[in-house]
Hints:
Helix content: 55-70%
Distance between the termini: 26 Å
Strand order of the largest sheet: 1-2
Number of domains: 1
Shape: elongated
Strand content: 5-15%
Oligomer: single chain
Radius of gyration: 13 Å
Order of helices and strands: HEHHEH
Amino acid sequence: xxxxxxxxxxxxxxxxxxxxxxxxxxxxxxxxxxxxxxxxxxxxxxxxxxxxxxxxxxxxxxxxxxxxxxxxxx
Length: 74
């Protein structure tokens, strides 16, 4: 992920503060087979949002992923 973070920082510098966007599609597949990876991606997305470095969009149909993304606090 550090390569993407570096590219996002360069993008932001070149485009007057606009943020890069990372789209993660089929999150339901990750939620079913690797829920730990999904939690890690959520943590990375939160860090990126907190630092206003880039935006992460999770795309999934209703079902497993939205429920898994609630985590323990949902």
